Known about the structure:
Layout: E1 2-6, H1 7-17, E2 32-38, E3 41-47, E4 51-58, E5 60-63, E6 66-70, H2 71-79, E7 85-91, E8 96-101, E9 104-109, E10 125-130, H3 131-142, E11 156-171, E12 175-196, H4 197-206, E13 213-217, E14 224-228, E15 232-237, E16 256-261, H5 262-276, E17 282-288, E18 297-305, E19 309-321, E20 324-329, H6 330-338, E21 344-349, E22 356-360, E23 366-370, H7 373-376
Antiparallel strand pairs: 1-5, 1-7, 2-3, 2-6, 3-4, 4-15, 7-8, 8-9, 10-13, 11-12, 12-23, 13-14, 14-15, 16-19, 16-21, 17-18, 17-20, 18-19, 21-22, 22-23
Helix pairs in contact: 1-2, 3-4, 5-6
Amino acid sequence: MRLSVLQDKLARGLSIVGRAVEGRPTLSVLGNILLVTEDARLKLAATNLEMSITTWIGAKVEREGAITLPAKTLADLVNNLSQDRVDMTLDPSTQTVKIQCGATTSNIKGIDAGEFPSIPEGGEEGVVLPGKLLKEMINQSVFAAAKDDNRPILTGVYTQFDGNVMTMAAADGYRLAVRTTEIEQHFPRALDMVIPARALAEIARIISDEDDLVSISLPDARNVVVFHMKHTEVAAQTLEGKFPDFGAIIPRSYQTSTVMYTSDLLAACKRAEIFARDSAYSAKIYVKPAAGPGEPGVVTIAGISAERGDNQGVLDATVEGEPLNISFNIKYLIEALNVIPDERVVFESNGPAHAGVIRPDGKDDFICVVMPMSLNR
């Protein structure tokens, strides 16, 4: 194998696939990145056996070949090379790649490409979505997935295709985020799966302005779903198990409904979070309806620290219904508000012992349900 690539293209490619490399691999080759020449491109791939990432970069190929090289060593070296042409030559007798860039010469020992696991390529194309839309759907659901493995199914995002509607939902036992959209394809029978949140987070990170469309190959016999972008593919093993019936916990009515400006509410929550850290991020929300005709309602966000002080943010709001005094994990509210680009949000509740609901004003394609702290502790 002998080829030339540009340093910045190689560095970006390695940063993309490197996210799939296991930190402490059970097999040495799983700590490596696969390099394969394909026509006038260099294919880079990495896998942890649950998720695989493959990307292609332009290259001048003089001699075909393949090798796997240690991911960290290769990435650290390339990131510290000058922005110039990188020449790579494989000595198959020693499985060593000579890397030259400017006045720098390095030799990295690798492992034969034949020992690298096969990368799933996916079945037939099932769904095509605009890249921007898919990225938004992932970001508006993945944040609510569980971070620990106590209930493995909750570390994934429930994804369903039913009719011409696609739904993505995530829950960790304390909150729920659901995003829906209409798609061009029609599914006469509902198809659902649970995709690891980590894999979806990587897909959202990879999607760029170049990715006008992203196609999804639906799970095959191996239960692998593959996302195809312009220069990159991500394959993920779907999770086994039944996802909870999240529809049952979404409130259908409310006693208090409040409309606020998203940016104002987010800023108030961030200020309260500074002091709420000392009390397991518990912050108070006080909602007061308008005192009289023509006057605004008032929402107060309060974070209190017994040692460091407190903060109260007061916002004008449109309030319907009863006054409210409720406690939430303020981090959960911040994470939900961070993924709502709309100018205004609606906050709804049935009282301090019931879940709170956050959604964009005038839309029904995204909803976040957050349990109050009193029910968690």
